Every structure is written in structure tokens, then in C-alpha cells.
Automatic annotation (TrEMBL):
Keyword Signal: yes
Signal peptide: 1-24
Domain of life: Bacteria
Matches recorded under CDD domains: ISOPREN_C2_like
Identification of the protein by name: Prenyltransferase and squalene oxidase repeat protein
InterPro entries listed in its UniProt record: Terpenoid_cyclase/PrenylTrfase (IPR008930)
Keywords in alphabetical order: Signal
Length: 345
């Protein structure tokens, strides 16, 4: 979530994922118990108004979308399941944050594109399952406006920054690009129109950010290849069905060398969790590598989980706050559930 997590991703290309039910892997009792404790922690941390926050009360919109999305991964919806009330409150809050121009969030938040992108991702998953006609139409209107805002926020180079191109003097960097692209892809999968030229320009941006060794650097201006950014970039390529693209093959080779197994930084860095949030989606799509990867990453994550006290079930690593890391880790641990189209094989 910080500038150094930066540069990348954006290759949603054709965006052709299908919405077929996924077959879940056999559950691991230790993982199930850890997930239950983590989601119960998030339920306790939610405010009465329906939102979550990072440290110092920051990133309300982004934390709300990430935490509620983790609850969707458990199988709960707005109408049923253990966390239905929490998810419903989160949807209400995010819908209330939809501005006339389409931004989901606060204009005075100097990182508002994070929350906007994560909200597109979360709300599109809810929209795909919504049965109430009135609420479904409301969600559709919010998402259509959100896509339009993202289109207008794109920079001249095809990327995105912490704020729109207009508000940020055309500055762009990779971590915010990632949230926009995956949010757009999720909207497209849910039936929300996404202009092809927005994706084409984003693809060009990520290509321009690649280094000779196959990694993705901080931004189009340079900064050297970063494992965290590269892991996020390859996730977007795989999500869009571009596994066989030459750019994807080169990037995947870089990631396997620098992230798998065990590389790319330590587990106490916020970038480590960010990196594996995206890279785990790639590994999950590889039925041969997933068992080994999930065993290692799951063991590493479970070792860090807090036991006892008011933070029971949370993860406290990194500087953004426990809601952020707990939402990411619980999502990683639930990929095998296969409930959300955005993460399915």
C-alpha cells in the first residue's frame, strides 16, 4: 500500500475469466480454525457505521473493501452466512461513499485510488450474487460510474497514481495501477462495460515498466525490478487468461526465481504480504505447484497469527495496521474455497 510497493500491474487484456463454480480443495482444519479466528477479529474491529480503518484511522474505504472481501471468501453473502451482517454493513458504507463523478471514497484522501480500486473489486463480487432488483440496480449504477472515474483518472502514459491524473499532475506508479486493473477486470466479469482502450493503454504501461530480467520496476521512470510489484503484475496477467503470452512467461520466470520459494523479503514487511496476496493467486492456478506453495505460505502465515487478548486472530506485522494484514492473510488462506470468481482457477 505504499509508494515502495509500487509499480505495476496492469494487464487485464482480454479479461475473459468465466464465472463457473470452482471445485474447492480439501479443507485443512488448522487453516479453517485460523481463518475463523481472523474473520471473527475483523468482525469485532468493524465500526457501527460499517467501515474498517488502518492505523491512525486511515484508509477507511480501502480497509472496508479488503476486510469485507475476505468475508466473502468464507462463503458468507449479504443475506446469509456467519458474516452476512458485516458484509451488508460494508456494502451500505461503500455505496454511500460513491461520489457524483464516480469516485468511491473521499476526494481529500491523498491515496484515494486504492480504496476506489478495492471497492470495485468487492462490490462487483457482491453485484454478481445480488438477487434484490433494487439493490442490484443501485450497485450497477455505482460500478458503472466507478469504471468511468477510473477511465478518466488514467494518466497520459496509461497508468494510475494515488489520485487521478488531474489531481496528481499526471503522476503514476504501480501499486495503485494494480488495484485499478483488477477492479476493472472484476467489473467486466460481472457484466459492467469496461472500455478496451483503457486496458490496452494499461498493458502498454506494464510492458514499459518491465526490465531486461523480466521483473517490473517501481514505475515507468525506473527504480529497478521489485519482487512485490512483479508478483502483482503476473497475477493480473494470469487473471486475464494470458498465461501463454511471452511477457507473462518472462515475468513468471522472474517471480519463480525471486519469490518462490521464500524470496522477495521477510514476513514482517507489509510488502511481503502484499506480494503474496497477488502471487498466491498465480500459484493457486497451478495445480502442480499449489500444494507445495500453500503448505509453505500457510505455515509461515499461521506462525505469525496473534493468540489471545483483544487482537486474537489478527496479524500485526507491517506499518499499515492489523486490519490490512489480517484481510490479506485470510484471503490467501481461503483461495482454495473457490467462492469468488475473481480468484477462481
Amino acid at each position: 500500500m505504499t509508494r515502495s510497493v509500487a509499480s505495476a500491474v496492469i494487464a487485464v487484456l482480454a479479461i475473459t475469466c468465466c464465472w463457473q463454480p470452482a471445485v474447492a480443495d480439501p479443507p485443512d482444519p488448522k487453516i479453517e480454525a485460523a481463518v475463523r479466528r481472523s474473520l471473527d477479529y475483523l468482525a469485532r474491529a468493524q465500526t457501527k457505521q460499517g467501515y474498517w480503518t488502518a492505523n491512525q484511522g486511515q484508509y477507511r474505504v480501502a480497509m472496508t473493501a479488503l476486510a469485507a472481501n475476505a468475508m466473502l471468501c468464507e462463503g458468507s453473502t449479504t443475506t446469509r452466512g456467519r458474516y452476512a451482517e458485516n458484509i451488508r454493513a460494508a456494502v451500505n458504507y461503500l455505496v454511500s461513499m460513491s461520489q457524483p463523478a464516480g469516485l468511491i471514497g473521499f476526494k481529500d484522501d491523498y491515496h484515494y485510488t486504492y480504496g476506489h480500486g478495492f471497492s470495485m473489486l468487492f462490490l462487483s463480487q457482491v453485484y454478481g450474487e445480488e438477487e434484490d432488483k433494487v439493490r442490484r440496480q443501485e450497485l450497477k449504477e455505482v460500478l458503472v460510474k466507478a469504471v468511468e472515474f477510473t477511465k478518466n483518472a488514467q494518466t497520459s502514459r496509461g497508468g494510475w497514481g494515488y489520485v487521478s491524473a488531474k489531481d496528481g499532475n499526471d503522476f503514476d506508479e504501480g501499486s495503485t495501477c494494480i488495484t485499478q486493473v483488477q477492479g476493472l477486470r472484476a467489473c467486466r466479469n460481472a457484466g459492467i462495460p469496461v472500455p478496451k482502450n483503457v486496458i490496452d493503454r494499461a498493458v502498454k504501461y506494464i510492458s514499459d515498466c518491465m526490465t531486461a530480467d523480466g521483473g517490473v520496476q517501481y514505475s515507468i521512470r525506473g527504480g529497478g525490478a521489485r519482487p512485490a510489484i512483479s508478483g502483482a503484475a503476473i497475477a493480473c496477467l494470469f487473471n486475464s487468461g494470458e498465461q501463454e503470452d511471452e511477457m507473462a512467461k518472462k515475468l513468471l520466470a522472474y517471480c519463480k526465481k525471486n519469490i518462490w520459494p521464500g524470496g522477495g523479503g521477510n514476513t514482517y514487511s507489509g510488502h511481503w504480504h502484499y506480494m503474496h496476496y497477488y502471487y498466491s493467486q498465480v500459484m493457486y492456478r497451478d495445480e502442480e505447484l499449489w500444494p507445495k506453495y500453500s503448505k509453505q505460505i500457510g505455515g509461515e502465515i499461521l506462525k505469525q497469527q496473534t493468540r489471545g487478548g483483544p487482537d486474537d486472530g489478527a496479524w500485526l506485522q507491517g506499518h499499515i495496521g492489523p486490519v490490512y494484514v489480517t484481510s490479506i492473510n485470510s484471503t490467501i488462506l481461503q483461495l482454495q474455497n473457490g467462492f469468488l470468481p475473481i480468484y477462481q482457477r
